[in-house]
Amino acid sequence: MQIREFSGEELEDVAGEFFLPMIARTGPGFRGRVAVQELGGALTLSRSHWAEPMMTFRTDRMAARASTCDRMLFCVYSAGRGRVRQHDRCAEQPAGTGVLCESRSRFERVSSTETWSMTLRFPRRLLPLRTAEITEACARSVPATAPAMLMLSAYLDRLFDVADDLADRQRADAGHAAIALLAMALRDVTPSVPGGDGPEEVLLDMMRRHVREHLADPELRVEELARRHHVSVSHAYTLFERIGTTPGAYLREERLQAAQAMLSDRKQNWRRISDIAAAVGFLDLRTFERAFRRRYGMTPGGWRQERPHTGSAPMTRKQGMPQR
Questions:
Q1: pLDDT tens readout for residues 34-72
Q2: Which member of 44, 84, 152, 195 lies 3.0 to 4.6 Å from 99 by CB, making a disulfide possible if both were Cys?
Q3: How many alpha carbons lie under 13 Å from residue 318 in its C-beta half-sphere?
Q4: Residues 98, 84: contact at Cβ < 8 Å?
Q5: Cβ-contact 24, 109 below 8 angstroms
Q6: Separation between Cα atoms, residue 271 and residue 276, nearest integer Å
Q7: Is 312 in a helix, a strand, or coil?
Q8: Which CATH class is domain 2-187?
Q9: Is the pTM of this model over 0.85?
Q10: According to CATH, where is 1.10.10.60 located in the chain?
Q11: Is residue 98 a contact partner of residue 152, using CB atoms and an 8 Å limit?
Q12: Alpha helix positions (H), 41-146
């Protein structure tokens, strides 16, 4: 578990590290606190406390950045009140409700009171809904009284409390179970999307799935990905623009996330760094190390050394979130 206390001036750094890169606006006396449980890969669960009102927003330019275009946030207020605006919709968020946001388009989040909240951050591909359904689910309040929402809120709260005692594989399984509950809750508020995804969306999903299933293939590059799906390279770029990235950036991000997960798994400690690099399609170790450092701020070896110690001690009452 990672715990951070911060001022308003530090909020943007904290948001970029634990949630998404955002622009923040707070008062001069703002104080916040966040505790984060990593559930594997880019899947995290956090508890946050904002002592005063605040606003964060993500611009069109920020939404187009390749490193975070696939991220989703689902926020549940346990106390306080706010609102989320995205896709020309504004969702009010009283205590107990949940709201989904996607990182690949601009959004605004305002907390109008002191708030306590939980946030599930995860890759978009984990949510078992169609592309159009996910977009339609964003910025729609999931009522606190909805049965699926009651189940999800209780599950997230309990998962956060016990995550320190779970093995890495158990954390990953528990995180995926949370996503399944979230999908159930979202289906209750998402309008019916007629007709399904068009052929371009289907082709894009096929290409993304092919990338995830062939990460170890060193021959898989943008040109080869396009050839295998019988499209031109320029058309491949056009398809990936739909999710705010490029084919090459998407392939690199998926490879680095897979490597990060392997380096975070104690059961993989027997594998050499070069073996892990090869397992995700990097034949040159130095190229892998440079890409990993740019993405995560440290070398693969440094990541492996630090991760087993993170969250090794349970959070005490003094360390924990402020009590209401």
A1: 999 999 878 999 999 998 889 999 888 777 664 556 889
A2: 84
A3: 0
A4: no
A5: no
A6: 7
A7: coil
A8: mainly beta
A9: no
A10: 199-308
A11: yes
A12: 60-63, 131-137
